[in-house]
Q: What sequence folds into this?
């Protein structure tokens, strides 16, 4: 009888640990990304899941179907993308200061100076 309760306890503990360590952080990230995409405005610079970077020109919200975004990737070149294809807004990164690269590398470590 005790062995059965131990199995139930450890199984329940494993399910709870799985939720808090693996599933919950992923669900929170998805929720934050969806919120950020909903708050996009015309003029924001965005990146798609395919790696295309462009400026948001228009938002189309149809009665049925997914929300579409018109993205200008070059002057005069516009593409349509669904909301799920937008990964993040890049224009929020403009205010962040880049880290200075003045520190010397430790001995024996190679640094890359160009991409």
A:
């Amino acid at each position: 009888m005790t062995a059965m309760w131990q199995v139930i306890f450890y199984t329940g503990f494993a399910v709870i640990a799985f939720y808090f360590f693996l599933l919950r952080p992923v669900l929170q990230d998805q929720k934050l990304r969806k919120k950020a995409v909903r708050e996009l405005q015309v003029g924001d610079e965005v990146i798609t899941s395919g790696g295309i970077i462009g400026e948001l020109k228009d938002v189309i919200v149809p009665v049925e179907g997914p929300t579409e975004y018109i993205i200008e990737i070059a002057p005069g070149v516009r593409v349509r993308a669904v909301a799920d294809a937008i990964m993040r807004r890049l224009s929020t990164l403009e205010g962040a200061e880049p880290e200075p690269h003045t520190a010397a590398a430790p001995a024996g470590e190679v640094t890359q100076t160009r991409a």
